[in-house]
Amino acid sequence: MSTISEAPAAVAIREGSQEMTIKSLAIENPRWCPGCGDFGILMALKRVMVDEQFNPADTVHISGIGCSGRTPNYIRSYGIHGIHGRAIPLATGLILTRPDLNIFIESGDGDSLSIGGNHLLHGFNKNVNCVYLLFNNELYALTKSQTSPTTRKGHKTNTQPTGTYLDPINPLRFALGIGASFVANTADWMSDHLVATLKLAAAHPGFSFVHISQRCPHFDPNAFQHKKADWMTFLTHKNGVTPERRFVKKAEVREHDPSDLQAAFDAAEHFKSWFGLIYQNSDKPRYEEILRAELESTPPKPRSALLDKYLI
Predict the structure, then answer these.
(1) Where would a tag sit more exposed on the chain, N or C end, judged by fewer CB atoms within 10 A?
(2) What's the confidence (pLDDT) of residue 311?
(3) Pairing relation of β-strands 252-255 and 233-236?
């Protein structure tokens, strides 16, 4: 069963008796392993809420199961810690009934691309208005280092101790292939780049897919060389994301047009090392707007007449 957490300070912030700060959004100390990338992602979400002045009373964080699933418990806003892979149906219901809310979905690589892959597919296609964060540590870490859909080939896990057999799923290519309207790539250790990416995603009208490379030093400390930059490439554009300042001198910087779908597919092939706004199409229709227009144009009918056509 899903659990719903309320925001005790939301009324005070709305009425102006309490200023919204990073500290005011904290509830309890997060329970993740030391060095986990989830700490950085959580702080980025709080920075976005403060910088953009997203009222906690009008903001909902929704998650599935996994290390990422704990995120809504650590932000003083409304939140739903749902069941495995089912965050998108929960979010869609909220978006259809409360289009005024700021909706963030936090999901891991297993939650998103394994048990939740069918819902992610329809999330891209329906293009409902929300920000979807994929925390990709390339493992099922909460269940102690099991192979996930994004585990690199040959990596030894508890479920495949001699090394994984298959190439990993490419999340960016998957998103583009289904027709996502917003696709971006960033990492937990790039604090400013991550925050800027999330702000851009929050401003996009539709389903904003943000893929985040996320460290798991407890089970896979060698997955990302996060202290070096010579393997990184930042994609830049006037409508894109500014490269991370502390890495830009040693990283490659490439001009990339996020409106060019073929260029986006080319960039997606480097999802492990190319960071920035990959693709954006602000004109893609949104399911909730289509459905709302359909409902508004339907003539009203009394409840007593709803089943008349079924009479024999």
Answers:
(1) C
(2) 83
(3) parallel
Res 120 pLDDT > 90: yes
CA distance 191 to 44: 7
* Strands ordered across the beta sheet of 102-108: 3-5, 78-81, 59-63, 102-108, 130-136, 207-213, 182-187, 274-280, 233-236, 252-255
Q: What is the pLDDT of residues 27-72, one digit of tens each?
A: 999 999 999 999 999 999 999 999 999 999 999 999 999 999 999 9
CA atoms within 13 A on the CB side of 278: 34
Task: Specify the CATH number for 3-310; select among 3.40.50.970, 3.30.70.2730, 3.40.50.720, 3.40.50.1820.
Answer: 3.40.50.970
Instruction: State pTM to two decimals.
Output: 0.92
213: left (phi over 0), alpha (psi -120 to 50) or beta: beta
> What residue spans of the chain are helical by DSSP H?
10-15, 38-51, 87-97, 109-113, 117-126, 171-178, 191-203, 261-268, 287-297
If you count DSSP H runs as helices and E runs as strands, how many of each does the chain have, helices first?
9, 10
What's the rounded Cα separation, in Å, for the pair 149 and 38? 19
pLDDT of residue 271: 94
Q: Do the beta carbons of residue 168 and residue 139 sit within 8 Å?
A: no
- Which residues, other chains included, contact 95 with Cβ-Cβ below 8 Å and sequence gap of 6+? 101, 103, 128, 129, 130, 288
Q: What is the pLDDT of residues 276-291, one digit of tens each?
A: 999 999 999 999 999 9
Classify residue 31 by its DSSP letter: -
Cα separation, 136 vs 123, whole angstroms: 18
> HSE (CB half, 13 Å, CA atoms) of 5?
21
